Amino acid sequence: MEKINGVPHTKEDLENVKAKAEKKAKELKAAAVKTIEDSKEKAKDVAGRVKTEVTKEEERINAVAKHQSEQLASEVSALVQKAEDALAGKSPAEAVAPSVPSLASEGQTPSSSTPSDLYTEPLPVGFEPPPGYKQPPPPKREAPKTPDLPLVAPAISSLGTSEPIISHLAGTIDSLASYLKSNPAAAERISGVLEGAKTDLTALAERIEKARDEERATLEVKMDEQTREYTLKLLETEMEAQDKLDSQEDEFRKMFDLRQAQLVQQYREKLENELQTQSELINERLKNEVIAQGIELQRRWIREIKMRVEEERGGRLAKIDELSAHLKRIERVALDNSAYLDENIRIHALWSAIRALTNSSLASPVRKPFREELRVVRHIGAAREDPVVAAALETLEASEVPDVGVEPFADLASWYTTSVAPKVCHVALVPDQDAGLLSHLASYLFSGLRFKRQGLVEGSDVLSVLARAEYHLNEKDLDSAARELNQLKGSAKALLHDWLEAARRRLEVEQALQVIQTQATLASLLVV
């Protein structure tokens, strides 16, 4: 890294500061991204909780459906119990029914005889078959036809996959139907009951499926609403994080620009100090070189004199006077060069001190004391013993202005425009002498009705003077503005007293510095 007298180069430091700022911006961006990811995780947690609630709601619906199915099962069980009770009430008829087969079995005992013994011809009423023949047994009665009972399981087969309990109840009812099929007498009476159970069970299964569809639709609507709500929240969180990241980036950019300006100012000051130091070193080196050259010339001439005296001792001693004159002229040149360099150094130091005093007293954006800079100018000017510079410096040192400083021109102009001029306008119509309260009130009221004048207007009234003073201030001519305002009298002069005092102090400093700069310029021309 390049250095100037141990001071790092400005560009390198600016790059380091820029790298640090970029690193900090990246860290902030990573933090913002992490915040967004945390927000997404929170949104996922919320979505998980919503899913859990939906699952719980589905379990509740399944529990309700199961409860309804169990209730239906209990109703079907009660129906089956009623059917069994009905069957139990018809047991005597069933007891008579088996007697018919028994008689038939008794009538069938003679059937063991050969068919040749049977008399198959028709017999008159009251007659018996001839001897050696038997009457054939009566024909067997056909068993009564059992009616087909309705089956419930095929009717609700489409609902059995979603509701196993309904399938189980349907199977139980079909088992009861199979049992009743083995008892034909009870099957005719219970078929209506089974048909009603089938209808009720089918309607119940459809109602459960409809309730489940309605609950599912409601849950889907709620799920969509909550999804939109949390999506909006997630977007708001992302936008807030992006806004924070943008604001932090702007803050770091401003900080970087401010730091860059500070570094530029610091290194500019260091460069000026270094240039001043280098100038002093160069001047000192030139002075030493001139002295060394004079001494060397003197020695060389002395050697030449000695050599020529030794060589031409015999008749050229008359040239010794001429050589001595040359030597004196050389010494005079060396002394003149030394005095010229000293005077240049003093003038350069005086100009540097004058510039420092001007920057501290007049060019500063704020008011600050400049006693130390004035003391430096006094010290440098005392070496030249310039009476004009001494008189100008004594005038400033005798006052308290160097201890408190002078108002900047911008502050004086702003003070005049915002505070002094409006107040003086209010008393523009007040007479210079014997002005009472009514005069001030009338002037305050009528001043607002008058048009504001601008530019170099003619007239000696207060508003014309204020317009000319404002014009001179806009032209940065403080002296002319103060001269115009100093002509006012009475209340206007009293209101302008503080402003005129501040302007007078600044003008005194400016005039003194102009005198000192003029004398420094004159001294520079005299040296040349």
Going by helix content, strand content and strand pairing, the class is: mainly alpha
What is the overall silhouette? Answer: elongated
> How can the largest sheet be summarized?
2 strands, antiparallel
Low-confidence stretches: 1-9, 90-114
Overall average residue pLDDT: 72
Rg, nearest Å: 64 Å
Q: How much helix is in the residues?
A: over 70%
Q: Total number of β-strand segments?
A: 2
Tell me the span between the first and last alpha carbons. 42 Å
What is the percentage of strand-forming residues? under 5%
Tally of alpha and pi helices = 15
Oligomer: single chain
- Major sheet: arrangement of strands: 1-2
| SSE order | EEHHHHHHHHHHHHHHH
Protein name: MICOS complex subunit MIC60
Keywords: Coiled coil, Membrane, Mitochondrion, Mitochondrion inner membrane, Transmembrane, Transmembrane helix
Biased composition (Polar residues): 105-117
Coiled coil: 11-38, 194-225
